[in-house]
Specification:
Number of helices of chain B: 18
Largest interface: A-B, 77 and 67 residues
Oligomer: heterodimer
Number of helices of chain A: 11
Strand content of chain A: under 5%
Radius of gyration of chain A: 24 Å
Order of helices and strands of chain A: HHHHHHHHHHH
Strand content of chain B: 15-25%
Largest sheet of chain B: 6 strands, mixed
Largest sheet of chain A: none
Helix content of chain B: 25-40%
Chain lengths: 309, 541
């Protein structure tokens, strides 16, 4: 097990360099002059451009730029935006909010999705099954920004007046429920579908029959024997879903004006703040890599048949 | 498990959850007070993240200006709807030849850190802004002060020989003299622009530290700033100027989306927005949404369609006339722009002293005349209008294109660019392949600011690549005329000459449509598309 973990951790290193390099090149090597729209109708003064070019190493070729960036990254410096704000500071103030939002979304999708999946999986065809099928198809077909804007309009002051259109500067869990629903709705539908299929399949498995034959109570058969095995594909999904959540968070946080990591990328892209975009995406890559490692390790806990040595 | 199954449809759960928990977010519906103004109220205005540090010499876009402008008092202020200049920090500005200006400043004015504002604070700030290695965005504004070339050589790689402009001389604690390279009659208005604000001594000791906590001399002082979230200012109670504010705290709330901000404004969570999102303008929805909370102003700006001389086939006066007469401005401003703009018929925004109606005689919709001119032009091929397509820029230009197409029977297409940045790099790189949107908003309220930057040979925003020696000569003569009225007459002459050449086609003039919330008793929009802070009054809760 320890050897496996070590091997996985070592694998992270080339993946980290590869992904960050790609991100850096994709963001900074976008064709077009980064200063073209900065100064309104007139072109920017050359002195300003010269200063910025030096500050962001834009005169170097992109490989040199990347290594200079990595160098400062390892000393804990995430760089600065064009207006002189430290990217590290920006990330520091915004990650707790995104974390809160992500937890809300994951809880919503896990609780509702799993419940719906387990119930329909156990009972098979019927009204409930059809209802879940139709509603999940509906949710899957909606892009996140549509869900978010529809929820905002329907529940906001123009509609039912239940929520404010924007979320306050340091939102509590209550304020994040609606954005959480918007963010988690897509995955919630997938979780429902996944767990339904997996439960329906395992319901007829030998070990379930054995458990029933042993006279175990129904709740124990479902809760311990059936669910524990059926939840593995769902868990894989939930783990890697964190990355997708971050993607959705870019839109959701933009719509609800939440000052989290997604909102940072949203504004970064809007204002062409390359330094912010690279910084946050690099962080997300790290989170994503760690999450998939944790999910892999959880397999062994859930299914004793899986061994890593 | 069977008993409760009916409750467990995921949609049921989702909606009930949403209903129950979302109720926590509610709580709007604060009642309007008896109608009295609260001098200690808080005002929140819509904001965007400043593109640069909050230093006057380095701020020129709306997001940053909204915070910087009220923090500083410049020599000259602009009052009211027509932006009349008046002496704010200046006691007197005198000149005999429009070349040497003698400026006396008022005594006893203080920066927010308690130090007194003296003449050297202006001189130091302007020198700092002009000095090339500081790389300040507003550096061009100091270009006509004598000695600018020594601190900011035209050649990018040359080293400046000094960091002080010879044209700035202190004559005492409260008096200084500015000498320009050439006479420039509008200088006494130009110095009202925020870039000419004074900077305290503490700035020069530690510019980086200053950026964290800017210190100005204006009606509002800096409290705190959280990037991407808000900028908070509070009233400077010791402020002696005429443009005091009637509220206590200003909260510039930064939004990622205009749509969300607009909804917050409707629910009373945000107090002022200086522009409306395209979705609210569409179909005139804003009129019903806002009712008496609609704030209209007059922006000093003008929208034109540049017809670049370097594009093959376009260097043709008859074609310019035909295009101009083929655009039905009145109809487009009414139906497509929903009365947020008015038709333009000159090169100068309608609120500026010296602007006259009907300068552009080909700016009236005249289908017969347009067809005749088009036949004379002999133009073959397709017309195009290019612009960035975001922010509601596309629709009016598509309408203009259709108007041209219907009148002249020639193909006309709208060519989109992805964003403003890409759009400007096409224009400044002289890579237009047809007509292009060319909008201008004034930095300071003067007829000069609508002509020199756009129509002078090599002007900083001369999108059409227009060059007429006669126009250049009249503009230079106007710049050098000390008498203000005589100067305006000369600028008008230049405008008449430009109107004959039609290097760009004036189309519309933005009214400026803003909105206030139910928490405000009054609010106005100023000529820069900024909240007119002085006019804002908060209702008593």
């Amino acid at each position: 097990m320890i050897r496996y973990v070590l091997r996985r951790l070592l694998q992270l290193i080339p993946v980290f360099f590869g992904t960050t390099f790609l991100i850096y090149v994709l963001v900074w090597a976008v064709p077009g002059d980064p200063f073209s729209g900065k100064c309104g109708q007139a072109a920017c003064p050359p002195a300003y451009i010269a200063q910025m070019t030096e500050k962001f190493n834009l005169a170097d070729n992109v490989f040199v730029q990347y290594f200079k960036y990595l160098g400062s990254l390892f000393t804990g410096d995430w760089g600065e935006t064009f207006n002189g704000t430290s990217v590290g500071e920006l990330i520091g103030t915004s990650y707790p909010i995104t974390l809160r939002l992500a937890v809300v979304a994951v809880v919503i999708e896990a609780v509702i999705g799993l419940t719906a999946g387990v119930l329909t999986g156990l009972r098979g065809k019927g009204f409930l099954d059809n209802l879940v099928l139709v509603s999940t198809t509906f949710l899957i077909s909606l892009p996140v920004f549509v869900t978010a804007i529809v929820l905002q309009l329907a529940l906001g002051s123009n509609g039912l007046g239940l929520i404010e259109a924007s979320v306050s500067d340091n939102p509590g869990i209550g304020e994040l429920i609606v954005p959480g629903i918007a963010l988690g709705s897509l995955s919630m539908a997938y979780v429902a579908r996944l767990s339904r299929t997996s439960i329906a399949e395992n319901r007829r498995a030998d070990y379930v029959r054995t458990a029933i034959a042993k006279g175990q109570p129904n709740s124990r058969v479902v809760g311990v024997h059936l669910l524990r095995n059926s939840v593995i594909p769902v868990l894989t999904f939930l783990g890697t879903d964190l990355g997708a959540l971050m993607g959705g968070a870019i839109v959701t946080e933009g719509v609800f004006n939440i000052n989290g990591l997604g909102g940072l990328i949203f504004r970064g892209i809007q204002n062409r703040e390359s330094a912010t975009v690279v910084g946050v995406v690099v962080l997300l890559v790290l989170v994503y890599l760690l999450m998939s490692l944790i999910v892999d390790l959880l397999y062994a806990v859930l299914d004793p048949r899986i061994r890593y040595d | 498990m069977r008993r409760s199954r009916r409750l467990w449809g995921p949609t049921v759960v989702m909606t009930s959850l949403a209903l129950v928990l979302a109720a926590c977010g509610g709580g709007s519906g604060s009642s309007a007070g008896a109608g009295g103004a609260d001098p200690d109220g808080t005002v929140s205005v819509y904001g965007t993240e400043p593109q640069n540090s909050l230093v006057p010499t380095n701020t020129n876009e709306l997001g940053g200006t909204k915070a910087v402008q009220p923090m500083f008092a410049t020599l000259v202020g602009f009052k009211g709807a027509d932006a009349q200049p008046f002496n704010l920090m200046a006691d007197s500005i005198t000149t005999t030849d429009s070349k040497v200006y003698d400026i006396k400043i008022k005594q006893g004015w203080k920066f927010h850190d308690g130090t007194e504002v003296k003449a050297h604070n202006f001189i130091d700030a302007w020198n700092y802004g002009a000095y090339a290695p500081n790389g300040q965005l507003n550096t061009d504004f100091y270009a006509n002060i004598q000695g600018y070339k020594d601190v900011h050589p035209a050649d990018e790689n040359a080293k400046p020989t000094t960091d002080k402009m010879s044209g700035l001389v202190a004559k005492g604690d409260y008096e200084f003299q500015v000498t320009l390279d050439a006479p420039f009659s509008v200088f006494s208005i130009k110095i009202g622009y925020t870039a000419f604000a004074p900077l305290p001594d503490s700035f020069f000791k530690d510019p980086k530290g200053y950026e964290q906590h800017p210190i100005g001399n204006g009606p509002l002082k800096f409290v705190s700033r959280t990037p991407n979230q808000d900028i908070k200012l509070t009233r400077n109670d010791d402020y002696p100027g005429a443009d005091k504010v009637n509220f206590k705290n200003l909260d510039i709330k930064i939004y990622a989306s205009q749509e969300t901000a607009y909804q917050d404004l409707l629910s009373g969570r945000l107090d002022f927005m200086e522009a409306l999102p395209p979705s609210a303008v569409a179909g005139g929805k804003y009129k019903a949404d806002l009712g008496d909370r609609l704030v209209t102003g007059h922006l000093l700006g003008i929208s034109t369609i540049a017809v670049p001389y370097y594009v093959p086939g376009y260097n043709n006066l008859e074609l310019r006339k035909a295009i101009s007469m083929a655009i039905d401005r009145a109809q487009i401003t009414k139906t497509v722009m929903n009365d947020t703009y008015v038709p333009a018929d000159g090169y100068i925004s309608q609120g500026i002293p010296g602007a006259r109606p009907g300068v552009c005689q080909f700016c009236k919709f005249d289908p017969a005349g347009a067809k005749e001119a088009f036949a004379k032009s002999g133009f073959k091929g397709k017309l195009t209008i290019a612009s960035n397509a975001d922010g509601g820029r596309k629709e009016p230009l598509v309408a203009a294109c259709n108007s041209i197409k219907n009148t002249l029977g020639v193909e006309c297409d709208f060519v989109p660019a992805t964003d403003f940045g890409q759009w400007r790099s096409i224009v400044t790189g002289k890579k237009l392949t047809g007509m292009g949107r060319s909008d201008w908003s004034a930095d300071y309220p003067s007829i000069e600011d609508f002509l020199n930057p756009i129509y002078k040979t090599g002007g900083s925003s001369n999108d059409s690549d227009y060059s007429n020696p006669q126009v250049d000569a009249v503009l230079a003569q106007a710049d050098g005329t000390a008498d203000k009225d005589a100067a305006v007459k000369l600028y008008q002459q230049a405008e008449d000459l430009i109107a004959k050449d039609l290097p760009s086609i004036p189309v519309w003039d933005e009214k400026g449509v803003a909105a206030k919330s139910k928490n405000l008793k009054s609010a106005a929009l100023d000529f820069r598309r900024m909240p007119d802070y002085q006019s804002i009054e908060v209702l008593k809760k």
